[in-house]
TrEMBL record:
This is Transmembrane protein. The lineage of its organism: Eukaryota, Metazoa, Ecdysozoa, Arthropoda, Hexapoda. Keywords: Membrane, Transmembrane, Transmembrane helix. The chain crosses the membrane at residues 48-70, 82-104, 116-139, 151-168, 177-195, 222-242, 333-357, 406-427, 434-453, 465-490. The keyword Transmembrane helix applies.
Length: 501
């Protein structure tokens, strides 16, 4: 009898026949999901969409503000000043918010404790800190050629999908993989024109080579471009590691079968992978490939469910159904990630004293650049004017120093929102690929922005309204349509996956 049921299951899975065995009527006490406990509720959809929009907007703001911020701070300080300011301010802001949340919720101690094992937090924080450190150092003073800086960012989604095939703990449906590939195609169309047009960067047409490439040789550009790619790979790896640890630490709940052939087949594979990582049996084995006697004995020993539940062979894991109090929170994850990042940034201060890496060449020059840069962040124009007059420099100190604060604080605010929204989105979707894909929507949006504005070469960090119908605008609009189409289909696949549960 059991052999007949297994054969019928395989025939239905391979022929595309849907499983319609009244999946809303199972008893919740036996590990199944009741119809009224759907995770795909209206509130969940609204929360999902709001977090996704916040992630998209904050990542767009970061991509637009970062080059302006680096150009402005480089006039009186250097990139290390921007790193220290951002790391320290982000850590301090997250710490204050964590203290407030701890007072209002579960207590101060629980809100400040590491969300995972300290070894994992340390390893992930070091990787994330190195990635951010290398990205900033690669972009400052045009070490990576200007017109390549934004287009290369699309590689983060390719790396994320690559890591998924090697390190995933939860299988994505085939639909999600296909729509993620569609997003990659849209991103490639978006950045294709920018990769080829070396005479246009962020709306500004270059007149000589150093406007696009700086004062670096082509050998230096090649090396720093490779460093930039490695840094983006490490950044993607951070979210993949967090995804794996979120799934390991979560309270897994097994739910019912899929509603289509594509979901059914993918979940057949998914459940086998989950069973290999799980130590507690919540349902019967999916398909027994061992011999009949061993299969019957293992079912008797491991599962004591009703006959109705034993016929429910197709299962998959959903952390969304677990208790929200058990699942890790985004705030402590972001706090500890940036606490380790701050330590990494402080430990690497010596790199700024090496002329090949940083702007300074000695400890005195390093301290002077850092001090002047921080003065500009906090509106210290008078102190800067005094220092510059002692050095005999005739420059419009107020204008150049004031621009640092104009870009630094909005960038900091956008970055904090990005960190919290990306981690929260990762917790909600349990997919690093999905999270990175949403953040890459910023690339075509930034391309459209730089078709309306341009960053002037005469004054560092100055924006100018300069709309122009260029090939980059056409590619950005066309690529945005494809990316949004892929994201809509990706969201529909995500909603259908949990609705079918």
């Amino acid at each position: 009898m059991e052999d007949v049921e297994r054969e019928d299951l395989l025939i239905r899975a391979s022929s595309g026949i849907e499983l319609t065995d009244n999946e809303d009527s199972f008893d919740g006490t036996k590990g199944s999901v009741l119809g009224e406990n759907k995770t795909n509720s209206f509130y969940d959809k609204v929360q999902f969409i709001c977090i996704g929009l916040l992630l998209c907007c904050s990542s767009t703001a970061i991509i637009i503000l970062l080059p302006l911020y680096l150009e402005a701070v480089d006039f009186h300080g250097d990139a290390y000043t921007a790193i220290i300011f951002t790391c320290f301010s982000t850590t301090l802001g997250l710490f204050v918010v964590s203290c407030i949340a701890g007072r209002l919720r579960n207590g101060l101690r629980s809100s400040l404790m590491p969300p995972f094992a300290f070894s994992f937090v340390l390893r992930t924080g070091v990787i994330y800190g190195l990635s951010c450190f290398l990205v900033i150092y690669s972009l400052e003073r045009k070490k990576v050629v200007c017109h390549l800086q934004d287009p290369i960012k699309m590689i983060v989604l390719i790396f994320s999908l690559f890591y998924y095939f090697f390190f995933c703990r939860k299988m994505m449906s085939l639909e999600k993989i296909l729509w993620s590939s569609l997003v990659i195609i849209g991103l490639f169309i978006t950045v294709d024109y920018g990769l080829c047009d070396e005479f246009l960067c962020r709306g500004n047409e270059r007149k000589n080579r150093n406007e696009d490439a700086g004062d670096w040789s082509w050998q230096s550009h090649v090396v720093w471009t490779l460093v930039y790619v490695v840094a983006l790979a490490l950044w993607s790896l951070t979210y993949t590691l967090l995804e794996g640890h979120l799934l390991m630490s979560g309270d897994f709940t097994y739910v019912g079968p899929g509603c289509s052939r594509l979901l059914t087949v993918s979940r057949l594979v998914s459940t086998r992978d989950i069973h290999s990582h799980s130590t507690t049996c919540h349902s019967c084995p999916l398909l027994n490939n061992t011999d009949e006697s061993q299969g019957i004995s293992s079912e008797q020993e491991q599962c004591t469910s009703s006959p109705t539940r034993q016929r429910r062979q197709i299962t998959y894991v959903s952390q969304q159904d677990s208790d929200s109090d058990v699942r890790p929170k985004a705030l402590p994850i972001a706090l500890w990630l940036h606490l380790i990042t701050l330590v990494v940034a402080l430990a690497l201060c010596w790199t700024d004293m090496i002329s090949v890496l940083g702007k300074g060449s000695s400890a005195d020059e390093f301290l002077n650049l850092t001090r002047n840069g921080l003065y500009c962040h906090f509106g210290g124009h008078d102190k800067m004017a005094h220092n510059m007059s002692n050095e005999g420099m005739s420059t419009s100190i107020y204008d150049t120093c004031h621009q640092v604060a104009i870009y630094a604080w909005p960038f900091l605010f956008a970055y904090i929102l990005f960190v919290l929204s990306s981690v929260q989105f990762l917790i909600m979707t349990e997919s690093a690929v999905f999270t990175v894909a949403v953040s890459t929507i910023a690339l075509p949006l930034a391309g459209i922005w730089w078709s309306l504005f341009r960053m002037t070469a005469s004054t560092p960090g100055l924006l100018e309204w300069f709309p122009a119908a260029t090939g980059g605008l056409v590619c950005s609009v066309f690529g945005l349509l494809i990316v949004l189409s892929g994201m809509v289909l990706l969201c529909k696949a995500h909603f259908k996956e949990f609705r079918c549960g």
